[in-house]
Amino acid sequence: MKMQLMAWASAAVLGVGAGTVTAAPASSETAVVPAGASSSVTGVDPARLKSALDDVHRAGMPGLFAEVRSHGRSWRGASGVADLKTGRPVAPGMLHRVGSLAKTFVAAAVLQQVEKGRVELDAPIGRYLPRLVPGVRGEQITVRMLLNHTSGIPEYLGYAFPSLEPFPSLPDMSPKSLDDNRFRRFTPRELIEMGLKAPAVGTPGASPGVYANTNYLILGELLEKVTGTTAEKYITRNVIERAGLRHTMFPTGPRIEGPHSRMYEAFFGLIDPPRDYSVYDMSWTGVGASLVSTVEDLNRFFGMLLDGRIVKPSSLAQMQRTGPVISQSGQQISYGLGLHVLEIPGCGTFWGNDGTVWGAQTETWIRADGERRISVAMNLARWNTMDSSGRPQRHPIDDALSALKRQALCGDADAPAENAS
């Protein structure tokens, strides 16, 4: 594929505690909400977190909301608006399209099948799906290569959204495909075929890998083959319900059923003013990025995953075996099996994922010991403008978002509870 898209519902800028998850009241005010029953958060400064959240809003984000957890307690806050026309505020408990964070759920489901002996990580995908990935390609590409994006299979999105194919040449592009596809129903195999027909982006197993959503659509077909049910149903029963997530689901239609924000897409200045795409048929992403969730549920899921309660510790170790992958922003990231790693100097190692779909962006990061984590959801995507060479330019939102994550994950270096405000 000719274009290199920054963020396309994937990694880069484009992918729990024990509390009962309930929807928060419709207010943009910050609240200290315990996972159990407390009035403060160990090692977290609520005032500084609220200020950092507000800074992202002031930098140009219409609305965002987050949950920060530390030592079993949680802080939740929101800033800005869910609807630019009405001024309706965002709230911490809103549902959100979380994009490629769904890939972590898919990877966990595949590892469960590895544990049951139904799938081998280093077996060729052609063993399971010979008609879908036939011939030499099916013999050379393994399940692991699909999970860690080293298959060499290219991205399908430029073919599904042809008006964006000239990227990064904005004068030659239009948002027509985004509007044309709003209610279009794609099938996974239709999208997979687009990717498989395109020129390969590398040889199977080559390093660095190249991120492609096509890989996870194939994994969805693998799950259906070995479980006898759709990937969405299997993940719902064996990952989402196993984790006790009450507000996480795969959509059945173009509308989100429950309190949620509008979702504004800017596409690097091509869409000005940004357009709301909160109503959208998510079949264009399939199982790998269509998930709807809340920041509470995401924090809970990643905490349970790292605690060995979704997959066995040996499977988690496989997920955390990272290698270099070129993201769709052109940056090199350290990616494992549905997880990637974030190193913050002087603070620690964090595991998680980020994701975006049209108009929405979400990130979740959790410290390796599970004691510090953040999930943050935003209702504007691809806010950067492009320079003459087609590179996204840094925006004040980027700096403010980095400061928020630093405050949430590092803050006061986990000061004792008595020192927390």
UniProtKB/TrEMBL annotation:
Domain Beta-lactamase-related residues, every copy: 57-389
Highest rank taxon of the organism: Bacteria
GO MF: carboxypeptidase activity
Alphabetically ordered keywords of this record: Carboxypeptidase, Hydrolase, Protease, Signal
Signal peptide per UniProt: 1-23
Keyword Kinase: no
SUPFAM superfamilies documented for this protein: beta-lactamase/transpeptidase-like
Keyword Signal part of the UniProt annotation: yes
Protein name: D-alanyl-D-alanine carboxypeptidase
Source organism (scientific name): Nonomuraea wenchangensis
